[in-house]
Write a structure and sequence with these properties.
Rossmann fold; 3-stranded mixed beta sheet; 6 helices
Length: 216
C-alpha cells in the first residue's frame, strides 16, 4: 500500500453534513463546468461529491500543504475520473492560481469554472478570507455562476442558536480574528461584487447553505 494513504485526514462533521450539502448542490449548481472548492480541508467532501455531481468536474484547493496531502491521499484511495489534483490557493490573495492559466492538469477550456463551493471556512479564518473569496468569485465566475457557502451565520447580527453563540465565543478565544459572521454583512459585500443572494437553506446543527449568483 502507498504510504501516502496514511496522510488521509478525517473531519467528523463531514459524514454528518455531506448528504444535506450534496442535496442542495444538486439543485443549485450549473449543469456543467468545473466546481472550484475553496479551503477543501481533509478532501472528504470532494471525494464524496465529485462522482455524484458528474459530468461536472471538481477542483479542490487549500493553502495548507498537509491538507493538500490528505486530499491527494483520498484521491489515491478512492480514484475518481472527474476530480482534479488539489491546488495551493489562499482565498485572501488578490490573484488566484486558477487565474494564471498554468494548471496543466485542468482543462478550463472544455470545463470552465462555473461554481465555487466553500464549506466551513469563513468562521475559522480572518475577515480577509471571506472578503477575498467574494472578490475572487466576481473575477472568476461567469454571469450565472454560483457561489455556495456553508456554515454557521448570524442573521440580523444575532446568533440563530445558543450553541452557535457558544461556538463563536470559543472561536474568538482561539483567535480574535475568527468568529461566526453576520450574513447580512456578507450579503452587502457580495452585492458590491455583483453577487446576488438567491436562497438560504436551513441545514443540520444550526448551519446554513447560502447561494449567490453572479448577475452581471
Amino acid at each position: 500500500m502507498d504510504n501516502s494513504l496514511d496522510r488521509r485526514r478525517y473531519a467528523p462533521a463531514t459524514e454528518r453534513n455531506r448528504e444535506p450539502i450534496l442535496a442542495v448542490l444538486s439543485q443549485v449548481l450549473p449543469p456543467t463546468g468545473t466546481i472550484l472548492e475553496i479551503s477543501s480541508g481533509t478532501g472528504e467532501h470532494g471525494i464524496f461529491m465529485a462522482p455524484q455531481l458528474a459530468p461536472r468536474y471538481w477542483l479542490p484547493s487549500d493553502p495548507n500543504p498537509d491538507a493538500r496531502a490528505s486530499i491527494t491521499a483520498w484521491q489515491q484511495s478512492i480514484p475518481c475520473d472527474n476530480i482534479y489534483p488539489p491546488i495551493d490557493l489562499d482565498a485572501s490573495t488578490s490573484l488566484w492560481l486558477v487565474e494564471s492559466g498554468d494548471l496543466p492538469d485542468c482543462d478550463f477550456h472544455q470545463h470552465p469554472i462555473t461554481a465555487i463551493v466553500n464549506i466551513n471556512m469563513i468562521h475559522i479564518a480572518p475577515k480577509s478570507a471571506y472578503l477575498g473569496l467574494l472578490a475572487g468569485a466576481k473575477r472568476i465566475l461567469p454571469i450565472g455562476g454560483i457561489l455556495y457557502l456553508y456554515g454557521p451565520f448570524k442573521q440580523g447580527g444575532v446568533h440563530t442558536a445558543p450553541s452557535n453563540a457558544a461556538f463563536d465565543a470559543s472561536l474568538q478565544a482561539q483567535n480574535p480574528e475568527w468568529g461566526v459572521r453576520d450574513l447580512e454583512e456578507i450579503t452587502t459585500v457580495a452585492q458590491s461584487h455583483h453577487l446576488e443572494l438567491q436562497k438560504i437553506y436551513p441545514m443540520p446543527a444550526n448551519n446554513l447553505s447560502v447561494v449567490f449568483k453572479v448577475v452581471e
